[in-house]
Each structure stands twice: as C-alpha cells, then as structure tokens.
Amino acid sequence: MNSLIELNKMGLCQMLQAIESGSCDTEALINTCFDRIDVRELEVGAWHIKRTREEYLSEYRGNKSFYDQSLLKGLPFGVKDIIDTEEMMTEMGSPIHIGRQPVEDASCVALIRAAGGIVLGKTVTTEFAYFKPGKTKNPADLERTPGGSSSGSAAAIADSMVPMALGSQTAASVIRPAAYCGAIGYVGSRGEFSLRGGQPLAQSLDSLGLLARRVEDIQLLRAVLLRQTASIYNHQSTAPKCVLVCHGESVGETSAAMKKAMDNAIEILKSQGVKVIELDAGGRIKEMVNHHINIMSWEVCRNLVIESFHKEKLSEPLAALMEQGLSMDRKDYVTSLDATQVCRDWLWSYALEADVILAPSAPDIAPLGHDATGAPHMSRPWQAMGLPVINVPGMKDQNDVPLGLQLIGKVRDDDMLLEYANWMMPLIN
Amino acid sequence: MNSLIELNKMGLCQMLQAIESGSCDTEALINTCFDRIDVRELEVGAWHIKRTREEYLSEYRGNKSFYDQSLLKGLPFGVKDIIDTEEMMTEMGSPIHIGRQPVEDASCVALIRAAGGIVLGKTVTTEFAYFKPGKTKNPADLERTPGGSSSGSAAAIADSMVPMALGSQTAASVIRPAAYCGAIGYVGSRGEFSLRGGQPLAQSLDSLGLLARRVEDIQLLRAVLLRQTASIYNHQSTAPKCVLVCHGESVGETSAAMKKAMDNAIEILKSQGVKVIELDAGGRIKEMVNHHINIMSWEVCRNLVIESFHKEKLSEPLAALMEQGLSMDRKDYVTSLDATQVCRDWLWSYALEADVILAPSAPDIAPLGHDATGAPHMSRPWQAMGLPVINVPGMKDQNDVPLGLQLIGKVRDDDMLLEYANWMMPLIN
Known about the structure:
2 copies of one chain form a homodimer. Chain A is an alpha/beta fold.
C-alpha cells in the first residue's frame, strides 16, 4: 500500500517517465489512482461522475496499442463539470441541467484525449462556476472548504487521485481552490486557449485552467492544448531577474499567516539574488476588484440566459448577481472594461523591470465550513486584466494547512511565467 | 400578390408597428414570409433547414397569447447554421456534423425567442463559417455569389423572406454577404454579445452578427440581445460631425464602381455639413490583413479540434488553413495580436475628431459564380481590431447590383455607430 501511495503522488511527467523507462506499468499507475479514490472519495467528494475501475481498464485495454504509443499513455484526467464531454454528462452543478448530455467534447478535452489521456470523470463544480458549493471537502483538512469553483479538480489533484485536471477561472475559480487544497493551478492569458465546449460565465473574464502537482506537468499540458511539440522531459526553469511584490493589502486584508508566507517567499527570492521591488499601486489594484464585479455582473446574466428563465432553480447568490447585472447601466460596464486596460498598461509600465508579480493567492488558508468557498478578491484584479497566473503551493500555516502564493505574468507571456514558477516551486517546498 | 410583396418587404419594426396599430395581422405577415419563400427558395437556397408553414403556424397558434403579448409578436427569424438551436439541428455546413442536434439554444437564440421571435429555420453557412460555399445564390443576381459565411442569413433578409436573422463574423462573414446581397449587417464590438452556443472559429476574432432591412431593426434586436429596454418606436438617429474615410486602396484594390460609390457617399456627407477627413494610414491598415490571417490561422486549428481529426471530410482551403496554423510559430501569432492593439490605439488617436469611419464593405459587387464567396480582405483589418461595423446598403452599380459601404465605430461605441448608420441609411437610398 505504501508503494502505491508513492506512485499516485507522482507528477504526470514523472509517471510518464516511469512508464517509458519501464520502471512502472501503466495499469499499476491507473490502479493506484483508483485505489486512492476508493480510500478517500467518500470523504473528499471530488467527483461528480466517474468511471469505475473496470470501465476505465476496459477502455485502456480495448485501445491499448493507441494508448501505449501516445504521449499520455492512457493516464487519467479529471474534467470540471462545466466542460463538455461526449462520453459523460455535463450538469454544471445545477438542477437545471440534470442529465444534460453534450453532443461533443470541448476542444481542451478532445486534445488531451487525442494525446492519450482518458477522462476518469467529471469533477465537482460550484453552481455554474459561481459561488454555491458542491459536496467537495478540502483534502488537506476535511473541515475546510476546498475553495471554488474548480473544487473537485483542485481536491482530486491535491489528494493525488489523478495527475491532471481541467478547470476554469472567471474570478478566482482555479487559483483559490488550488491555493486552499495545495495544488498547482494555472490560468492562461485571456484568449490563450479555445473555450469551445466550456460553459461561458463572462466572456471578458473566462479563462481555461490546468491543475497538476508539478509545474512541468502544466508545461506539458499547455503544449498539448496549443498543439505544440510536447515532451515529458527537460522542461525549462528560469530564475526571474526582478519580481514585483503585490502585498495583499493592495487588494484587501490578509492573515498573519499569509503575511508570513509572503515574507518567507520574498526572503527566498532575495537569497537567490532576485531583485525584489514593491508595488505601490495607490489604490489602483483594489479598484480592479469592483471593476471585475461590474464586468462579471453585466455578462453573467447575458450568458446564462436559459438558466435565468428558471429562477426558482438558481441559488440566491447567482440570482442576485443576475439581478444586479440586469439593472446595471451599460456605461458602468464599459467604464470598467476600459479601466482594466488602463490598469494593465499602467502596471507593466510602472514596473518595466519586473519579470513577474508575486502576490497572495487568497487572504488566508481555506476557511472552516462548507457553506461557502472563501473570498475571491485576491484574484479579481489579475483576472480583470486578463493576465496569466499560477498558484505555487508549498507554504503552510503552523497546522500544516496550505497557503498559496500566485505568480502573475504579462499578457501572453505564459511560457515565461511557467518557467519562473518551475524555478520557484522547489525553493518553497 | 402585390400587397403581399409589400408586406414582406417591410422592416421588423414596421411590421411590429403595423400589428400594434391593427393595420396588419400577425398571421398575414407570417404568411407573406412563407409566400416569398415558396416563390424564391428553390432559386435562392437561403435555408438549410426550415419549418413548414403549417409547423410554424401551429407553434404560433399554440402559444398565441404569449406571442401576442410579446415584443416580437411571433415573427420569424433565421439562424445561421453554426449557431445552436434546441429545436433544430446545427450542422455547420460540414458532413462531419450531419444530424447534430444541440442540447440547448445559443444565448442569442434564447433571447430572441424569449422576446417572441420564432425560428423559421437555419440559414445556409459556408463550411464552419470559413470559405467553402453552401447552395445559396445572390438574390439580387442569381448568377453571383451571396458572399459568405452568413450566406443564407444575408440572402433571406435581402430577399425579404424574414425580417431578422443571426449571423457571425470572424473575417468578413457578415459585412461581405450583407454588401453583396444588399442587406444591413451589423457586427458587434468584440465581446459585446454572448457567443455561448455559437461555433467558435477564432476566439480573438469571432463576433455575433445581426442582419435586417432597416437600421432601427438592428437597434431593436441589439437591445433584446443586451436585455435592455427595447422599443419598436423612435430609434435614435444622429448625424456624425466628422467622418474618417478609408478608401479601399488602404487595404487592397477596389473596382471603379466601388470608387464611385465611395465618392457619392462622401459627396452626400459633405452636402449634409459633415466634415470628411481622409485616412492616410501609411500601410498600417493593409498590414492588419496579414495580422488577421495570422491570428485566424493559429486559432482555427485549436478550436476546430474534433474536425481536424476528420481531415478527409474537410474542404481543401480549411485543411490548408489548419496546416498553416499548426506549423506557425507562436511568436508570430502573439506579434499579430499585439499589432492589432497598437493599430487600434493609433487609429483613434490619429483621428481624434472622427466619430466614425467610412470604408468599402468589399472590393466590388458580388463576383459571378458560386464556387467561392468573394474576397474578405476589406473586413479583416476592422475585425482584427475588434471594432463594431455595419454594412449600409443602398448603392448599386449600373446594373442594379448592390455595392456595400461600411461604417466602422470605436470599440464598444456600438450604440452611436447604429445612430450614425440610421442617419445615413435614408440619404443613400
């Protein structure tokens, strides 16, 4: 059993390397994922729908020669249940869509499947990727929320049930659950990946997310999604020359534990010879929180149209968000859109020298309880600006509960962002 | 029969006003659309799938009290067949998706239906809204192409088969068919409307389109899609103070007939006291054509993923576009994305004074033949910059074949663009 736990904790590239080197058998790796799920799923609740072990192995064995020759070898991935899958329902955490069977795979799912991944199941999402939680608990502390909305994907990764999972972020829906559960969560620059087949929430904010346990796995999956040459070896890792620090106070309150984690990270960066400069935003980043809320309010009720006709089946917070959006003045929406561009241009001209920004992923560790998914405001500014972001796990509070730090990159500079994260990850672990 | 032809030629608002005033019966208007289709569809071929008159009237009569109290009174609309409809298949002009039945309506369809519109049918699209033509012929001259990709929607509007239709534009897919057929075609600012349930082609370029016969109808439908207060009366019309003219030569060659149409329009503007300034872009707009092609090439093969696995069922031009995108260097893609922003900022700072841009919608009238849909380059620059655009019909060559002029607005300034178009439309008709 011990050796099995070791296997399932490996990263995706590590698993694939073990298969290539012959030190590990694909079915053993698949089985170790199912073993972990068997032991933990009843408590963690990461999965909304999933294949049984038998169904999975039957798919793998039935197409063994394809999978064995493929990049991803038939290893399992989880798909947030707002992303369409041809072979499984997509119910979006809502009673409105019970039994909804999409016609085809989302592009991201199709690409990972074509690269040899197998969908193990659909991971729990909050209602339409907004606030109302699903059944998932935080695997690091079952009394706590896993965060949302990519709750199941973050929990499944952090609990080593699968080595890769898909999520999405409109406000904080990848970074926050990744931070709370202790997973790597990467959100692409706005527009970077096809969102075909993913349920849109707000077209000016939605981004695809990837969750994994090692940065190199994110680099591999990013190449798969961009249909670029993908390798399981030798992923780039680069030290930033200069990091711009955005303390939580620029956005809102952060806990003492988070402040300490940020201080520790800054010390580590300095000890590595990285120049650290502090962001003095003069309220500009905090303003982005409200602009983000304006944009989201306006757009959600114009995307979730069918759903808005079933008000009785919507949660109170989602119905309230829709009401807000419907009564908004369009001028305020356009003003907020403009403001995000102005702030983005200001930010990177302010810190011409900086390669990347370091900021808290959330105000604190995951809050206790399962009625809410924690505060999203630490992500809203970056998401409003459409920047690529990655949660780098590793820091913990005195009780060993994860504290997440995010690295934020320049628009479309996702590859460098991942290289910096790949460099930083071992230093804080 | 003459009075029927008059009825079906009315604009949407005119029809609705006639119903409200009691001067016209809803069923008479519905019947006049079907009468026109009965007479012309065999030749024009605007429809891929459609309801019969009996099916339509049964839907209308079955929910008569809802429709009679609704804004759109049960009048028919056409939906480009890359936009999902719950009650009809969406086959996207491709053999790959024969029989494809979507799970739910696209948001735009759901909103028009909720406002009391009834889907008369799915209009012909080129293959995946790219180049390979469907069966549609130009109703103004059956020997000519209707343009693409929203071929059926433009033809159905221009031929007075329905008073409203949905389209989409990634390159020139609304403006060009609208110009060729003689319809109004409006393309929203990038991000303006929800694209949920519309087949994405290139996420950085795709926009929803609306087609109708009068600008006020577009204003009405825009309000419906934005869930704003919509009225069938008193739509705003505003004279621009200053118009920036972009002659076709800034993008490519234009015909003598188009040059004359532009000159005529400029004379009309001047005679109305509008200040006209000429764009000297120094090659900047022409460069946008290639940047647009780069962006589209990169993104299409990453959206049409499932389809790319059925190469044998793709047209040669689409397969070639995908090949190009797959072999591209990502740097060229990002460079092109950046260039569009730079050009957009330059454009409006160059002409601070200008309210709107006037340019040819296409190089010429619709070309003869049905093997291709005409050249899209007159639209590529504006689409690359994400600007709102409207084709204003009315000009014709010496043989009475339509010549389209486009008005191009500032980002998210769609309401003013429509007011300028509403002012200009009667002047050139």
